[in-house]
Amino acid sequence: MSYSREHATLRNELRDFYEQYAVCLDEEELERWPDFFVEDCRYRVTARENYDQKLPYGLIYCINKNMLKDRVLALRQTTMYEPRSLRHFVSGIRVRSVDADTVQSQANFAIFESLSDREPTVNMVGRYIDILVRTPGGFLFKDRDCICDNYRVRTSLIIPV
Fold it and tell me: Strands across the sheet with 121-135, in order?
């Protein structure tokens, strides 16, 4: 896609959307997290090697919004983990293509984690590869791949990426 005023406006809209997503996770407003997705969405957290080899495996793999809601319910009611604070940083937002009300985009992410008794650490780095749909209320994810560049996940993967 060539650079234009329309392209710059779209990137700004995407940046706002990505930042709202990050704030939702950073502030642990997990019940709102599924609201960023359409009903028949796909959400996957996978290793870079799996993505590059087109393997379907994922550390987290959800194929609809109800599975996202179940994940939140499990986090709130059954999962035991050490309290932590996360900060998601998103950069390098790129529009890959636009077709009617669908946008394919890519962005880099870095997630820092702070536990009560340790210095903050880099939890995960990677990139998002997304397909978004524009709705009257704004963008929603149709398809989200969170591709981790980490050799391994340092601690348990609890909060969504």
Answer: 60-62, 37-47, 138-148, 121-135, 102-115, 84-99
Q: Identify the residue whose tokens are 């702070």.
A: 114
Average pLDDT of span 104-126: 91
**Contact by Cβ (8 Å): 113, 88:** no
Q: What is the separation, in whole angstroms, between the first and last Cα of the chain? A: 27
- Mapping DSSP onto H, E and C, the string for the chain reads CCCCHHHHHHHHHHHHHHHHHHHHHHCCCHHHHHHHEEEEEEEEEEEHHHHHCCCCCCCEEECCHHHHHHHHHHHHHCCCCCCEEEEEEEEEEEEEEEECCEEEEEEEEEEEEEECCCCCEEEEEEEEEEEEEEECCEEEEEEEEEEECCCCCCCCCCCCC
| Contact (CB, 8 A) for 96 and 2 | no
pTM (2 decimals)?
0.91
How many angstroms separate the CA atoms of 161 and 158, rounded?
9
Q: Which of the four pLDDT bands, split at 50, 70 and 90, describes residue 81?
A: low
